[in-house]
Design a protein that fits this description.
The chain is α+β, with helices and mostly antiparallel strands. The chain is about 30% helix and about 25% strand. It has a domain at about 30-40 and about 55-255 and about 265-280. The strands form three sheets. It has a seven-stranded antiparallel beta sheet with strand order 1-10-11-12-8-9-4. A three-stranded antiparallel beta sheet has the order 5-6-7. A two-stranded antiparallel ribbon has the order 2-3. Pfam families: HODM_asu-like.
């Protein structure tokens, strides 16, 4: 006689928005690196709700996140890097993203343009600003920092030349254990060199070829995940001493389900229409295991993924010292 366990889906109406809109990344009980690229804008239905219907998602953390970004940039201006030849790409991003943001949020934002003269209104920030496309001095904080003050996403700009992609600009305040300052000016292949398995499986080569074939205005997306202790967005290598030690002690902490977060990046890949640069938008979502567990399918699936994950991948993600404890807790039900 076999016994079938039936998981009853939670009443999604009573789940908080941070769970209903969370981009849960696992489609099965195991995980391996892949490009997992799909067209942007398609809504993905999950066991808790849905995500993905907008290019620039605004959620309950919007104001705290942009405030945190400002604090990071004040403490460490090196998180913003623009090589001189990438200035047009930054303005291209402004002219692309602000209209999209206004279209997606007509009740709180608006963008008007006449020639190069623009007006941006954001009532969530009580902001009304006029500027001129291409004139850096028309935005006192500079164009890239201004754009970063309006969206929750990090931004990475890739230039295409010499049959390769180069990371030549970006604003990255919420990095997952990497450094924009270190990577700026490097080739796409060099940046991904430390990632286990991707070279042997030619994932990076295929991804680069895909990106170089993107046409102006095309938008795609992919997801990536790791885990973070506490709701800490800034886990860059610059701040490593502030958070690395928690990895070695969290397995013994009774508060592990509330402190350990699944960290998911929704990465949008856009060929900017005028400059031809490729823009990576990287939006980071964090959800504690205690919230994951409120969705029975998520709880079991994540537990199995962590249990099955190869050790080299767990080590690269920095979770090898606590992933078994996290998995055991999730699978205990």
């Amino acid at each position: 006689m076999s016994i079938t366990t039936i998981h009853k889906d939670p009443d999604t109406a009573v789940l908080p928005e941070r769970i209903r809109g969370f981009p849960f990344p696992y489609s099965g009980d195991s995980y391996r690196y892949s490009a997992n690229v799909e067209p942007a804008g398609k809504t993905v239905t999950t066991e808790a709700g849905a995500w993905g219907g907008r290019l620039l998602d605004i959620d309950e953390y919007y104001l705290p996140d942009v405030k945190e970004r400002e604090g990071v940039l004040d403490r460490d201006p090196s998180r913003l890097q623009v090589l001189p030849h990438m200035r047009p790409a930054v303005w291209d991003a402004i002219a692309t993203l602000l209209p999209a943001m206004a279209e997606e949020n007509p009740g709180t934002m608006s963008f008007r343009r006449e020639g190069k003269n623009c007006r941006w209104q954001n009532t969530l920030q009580n902001l009304d600003v006029e500027f001129t496309i291409g004139d850096d001095s028309s935005l006192p904080m500079g164009p890239l920092r201004f754009l970063g003050s309006q969206i929750q996403d990090d931004m990475v700009f890739l230039d295409q030349r010499e049959d390769a992609l180069w990371l030549d600009a970006g604003l990255v305040t919420f990095a997952a254990d990497w450094s924009l300052k270190f990577d700026v000016g490097m080739k796409f292949h060099e940046i991904h060199g430390p990632v286990p398995r991707v070279k042997e499986e030619q994932i990076v080569s295929r991804a680069e070829q895909f990106l170089m074939r993107l046409q102006p205005g095309e938008k795609y997306r992919r997801t990536n995940w790791t885990m973070t202790i506490d709701r800490r967005l800034d886990t860059s290598t610059e701040t490593y001493p502030n958070w690395a030690q928690d990895r070695g002690t969290i397995a013994e902490d009774p508060a592990l389900p509330d402190r350990v977060h699944l960290r998911v990046e929704v990465q949008h890949l856009i060929r900017l229409p005028h400059s031809g640069a490729i823009l990576f938008l990287v939006r980071t979502y964090l959800l504690p295991l205690s919230d994951i567990a409120r969705v029975p399918v998520w709880r079991e699936r994540m537990g199995r993924v962590l249990a099955e994950l190869p050790e080299d991948m767990a080590e690269y993600k920095g979770i090898s010292r606590y992933r078994k404890t996290a998995s055991d807790w999730l699978l205990a039900g």
